[in-house]
Amino acid sequence: MKCPRCGNDNTRVVKTRTKDDAITRQRCCGDCGHQFQTEEKRLSVKVATRRNPVVAHG
Ligand SMILES: [Zn+2]
Fold it and tell me: How far apart are CA 45 and CA 20, in angstroms?
């Protein structure tokens, strides 16, 4: 993950927050100290909460 201010690749995660369908991460640049947020969509959240019975394929 690159810093949006200086473009440095040396960033670390300060905080992670999970929402229903996304993960928000607070990141800090190791070079200029700029803090920024990134958001990732969670794709497998519905699979984890709903258990489907095993259905034979075909
Ligand atoms: Zn930076």
Answer: 8
Which domains are assigned to the chain?
Answer: 1-41 (2.20.25)
Cβ-contact 29, 35 below 8 angstroms: yes
Q: pLDDT digit string (tens) for 2-54?
A: 999 999 999 999 999 998 889 999 999 999 999 999 999 987 655 555 666 67
What separation in Å is there between the alpha carbon of 49 and the centre of ligand 1? 38
What protein residues have CB closer than 5 angstroms to ion ligand 1?
3, 5-6, 8, 29, 31-32, 34
d(CA 31, CA 27): 12
